[in-house]
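Sample log: Neurotransmitter-gated ion-channel ligand-binding domain-containing protein.
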Amino acid sequence: MKLYSSLLTWIPLVSCIVIDSDYNVAMDDEVTTLASSAKRKDRNCTRDTAIIDKLLNGTGYNKFRIPKDDGVRVSVEFWIQAITSINEITNDFEMDIYINEMWLDPALNFANLNPCKQNLSLSHQECFLIYESFNYNNQEVQMRWSDSPEPVVTMTRIVLPDFDLIKISPTLVNAPYPAGWWDELHVRLTFERRYIWYFMQAYLPTYLTIFISWISFSLGPRSLPARTMLGVNALLAMIFQFGNIMRNLPRVSYIKAIDVWMLMSMTFIFCSLLELAIVGYKVKNEDLLKKRGSIIQKKVNNQLDNFDASPAGLCRYERRFILPMEKRGFIHFILSRLRAIRNLPPEKIDHLSSFVFPACFALFNVS
């Protein structure tokens, strides 16, 4: 994802004007007279504008005029002081920077200067900062990065709660506009996400919720109320967790990896509820079969009490119970095997589920 800076808390602008001249030790008498007269006029201090106006008198200097007819080259440096926040929802990030612009203006040539004794040397996330001239194209102002090895530097180590700043890449881009070509200075900030926050806020609660849903396999097939409450609460907790994660992510139309992982996790919990429904259905059928078997047993006992031992009665009994057994063949054998798989006892289904569910979930996470 690429974020474009739209909020800059404050950007102090420092313009350094390089004056092309030789250093002379002595000050001109005219400048000394100007300084003394300015001090008499203002007892507190000498105004800079008065000195500059006197120095530039007669030179025809105009600060609103481009120094060269063929354009001026402006060297730019960025000092990144701090990056305060990155908002993934609004695609904004805030940073405090110093912008240094340096260019050579021949109209400011002045020979009488004291020597200067000071040293005035100045899954990864990518954010872009674009800096360009507002009024002048590259025929009038050529924007260039300074010749220093690192034109964009950080004043202090940048520490963010969610990301680590690992790389700063300054580039020059020529952008076409209807009024001509503009020089754009691009700064690409590469961040590396810190996964510990997402693991603690998203992955760990989700894992615990899924593991809790598997406890129902060990409660027994007849603990239906407890297992139902456990499964439903786990599913509701997963839905709430999914909504909480979505609130901290940008709204996009495509499916993200976290969406697939969360939906599959919810599917595992939903499948555990389906397994509970199958087990409950089989437990209910077993109870009905036991109840029906007891009723049939009573009827059989009553029929045995009234059983007729004559050959005709014996033949009637054999026709009723023995003759249908002779009609079974190979197809009936296959159906009986399938029926045996379908008629697994509830305890066996819970035992198999306690191994199948964790194995499938582990395979899903690995893949």
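Observation: The mean pLDDT is 74.
Observation: The longest helix spans residues 257-305.
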